[in-house]
Amino acid sequence: MSVGVLLLVHTAFDRAEQVARIWADAGCPVVIHVDAKVSGQEFDAFKAALSDLNDVRFCQRHKCVWGMWGLVAATQSAAEVMLAEFDDVRHVYLSSGSCLPLRPIDELRAYLDARPRTDFIESANTAEAPWAVAGLEEERFTLFFPFSWQHRRWSFDWLVDLQRRLGVKRKLPEKLVPHMGSQWWCLTRQTLSAILQDPRRADYDRFFKSVWIPDESYFQTLARLYSTQIESRSLTLSKFDHHGKPHVFYDDHLQLLRRSDCFVARKIWPKADRLYQVFPDNRGEEVNQAGPNPSMIDQLAAKATKRRISGRDGLYMQSRFPDPHFESGVTAAPYSVFQGFSDLFEDFESWLALTSGCKVHGHLFALDRVEFEDRAPVYRGALSDSARARDYNPKSFLTNLIWNTRGERQCFQYGPQDNQANNWLMAKDPNAQISVISGAWAVPLFKSNSNFEDIRRDAAWMQKQEAEFLKVLRSPWIKAKIRIWTMSEFVDAPVEPLQVIVDEIGTYPQNRLTWLPKMTDLTGFGQFVQNLKNQGMHPHLLGEFPVDPQQPSPQTPSRRPYLVQ
Questions:
Q1: Tell me: the pLDDT tens digits for 546-564?
Q2: pTM for the model
Q3: Packing angle, helices 348-356 and 495-505, rounded to 10
């Protein structure tokens, strides 16, 4: 008994001719359907190129549009020719001009001979299939779809919306239970002839002509009425992304396809010369009767789909616009943000770099320029210190910096005087560690020689900015690691917070701090705070400062507390 092949051809006629010869040379009769949209000249040339093959036929041509009835009509016409002209065909294999046999045809024939009454067609009940739970997956059978989704999208959407509002719900023909699955199947002659010769075929065809994407449901549904044994899977390897578009196989997939043990693969790039030279691959003298084992390709396709949807943590490419609902990670690596530390300590940046071994920057989001480490004009990944270039897309600036410096923890200073565009991004980033000394912005104002009215105005503005940032950091949606101290709390006991921070981010073995950064002279700061209050500006984010406090001496760290269990 033989295997008959139906080829649906739309383009790449040189490759379709090559595939047809592979099947025909192996003794398989082939019936070819050429899309009616193809010009008569191209069709005649293609038909003439195959005229030397005795068992190749061409069927009536139909116009094929994705999601429309033409694909089913094309398959029906080709199948009718196959059944009428080739009596020795027991299985009919539906394929296309872009499908390439991977294994010798004799192995496929032997596999089917061992299963003479089995139909291989993916056929899942729409009520139970994981991809068919609501929306058009259910409504594709109950609404009318006379317009092409690809070519007349506005009309398609308008009519769907109108039918929903009117409550249109078509009734399925008696005994039909909708099933869906891959278009590419291999049916026994008995099942296929029963479908095509059914007395109610005209009713079924009339119904499915208005179904959306009927090539994925027509044979899948009707096979359930007549088949005595269905294996709900396709013998053709075809993988689809999350948009429903097929994965294309290229030359660099050769070894992967070879190890899959699949009989046929779809969709092969027409210019994959190496694949068309190697396959079908006959590596042994004995016929291999093992079934397809596409698990490795399944895993690769799943990884590719995940990568396509969520990308890599912190990497944003021109080929995939970021979607906050699908991003797997905001940034590529952990980093630390320090607010108020460089205001309170005179040499905080250099101290933190020496103590922790991290890369420590100044205010990366300062309004006048980007303060990279050592105030470099250009940093990793050709990032410029231009504030104008950074502010064109502050989010991308930060994510690029972290991506370009993977392997080295980045730390930078932040404050209410900086560009605040990334507040939510950092707060919702699991890689961010944000440490804030609230109210420390008052120290530079205290040290300035400005008019007090200007100082009071700047203090009120900075406190408002910082209050907004703290509100973000205290929201229930944060994912960053947050630590907040008022300035008065920190000045009273600076050693422990600094020790915790260094232990957490440091690249060196954890040791007790032996020296601390130099805290700025706060003599008279309490009176300065009181003056602000007297002028009507209450700096509540600083905490409580006495008018004449004692200057703390944090240079001799005390022993760390520990817990005894």
A1: 776 555 544 445 455 444 4
A2: 0.68
A3: 50
